[in-house]
Amino acid sequence: MGDVRILEIKESVFADNDRRAHQLREELREKKVFLLNLMSSPGAGKTTTLVRTIEALKGEFTIGVMEADIDSDVDARTIAQTGAKSIQLHTGGMCHLDAEMTRQGVEGLGIEDVDLAILENVGNLVCPAEFDTGASKNAMILSVPEGHDKPLKYPLMFEVCDIVLINKTDVLPYFDFDIELVEQHIHKRNPRAKVIPICAKTGEGMDAWADWLRTEIKKWRAGE
To answer: Could you tell me which residue, 176 or 8, shows the higher pLDDT?
Structure first.
């Protein structure tokens, strides 16, 4: 029998991306730009939440938003109506953004006059969680109609997030969704994750979310 070639994998396939992400994060820190990576499944309410977020913070920070989708410019147009700088990123069919794609988005957005840059990642609970984008913090939205079992089914997404927003609390009476139970599931995966119930439609919980962002931006600027 012929010899069998053995290939020893010395480095993670994500190692190059991780290096690029670290470099981008440090460059943004030097420029005092806070980059938030916002993730969720499609329809969880990312864009509506961003509109509310911009309304709450636009008097304090200059905000720029990168909208990532496989196609269309619907979300970027929605954000532009708030007065915030916005750009649409087309992924060419890919279901996530990595560090290099994020860098291209940052360069296209232009951050010379931006304090808070927000990346609305592609709607997906799997792929976006696997790639470090170079963000200062990771956030995700879990909507009530999706069910409280998602932290058990998609653990990595909840493990990489610094904060989880439970959106669409206005429909809690109509769904079998247990907020206390979902918090237990989240903290089982990620004890440090902050959990805030919100309703982007009515504005419930948005003050707490805005306060969290203010605190994190302040710490980022201080180099913490």
So the answer is: 176
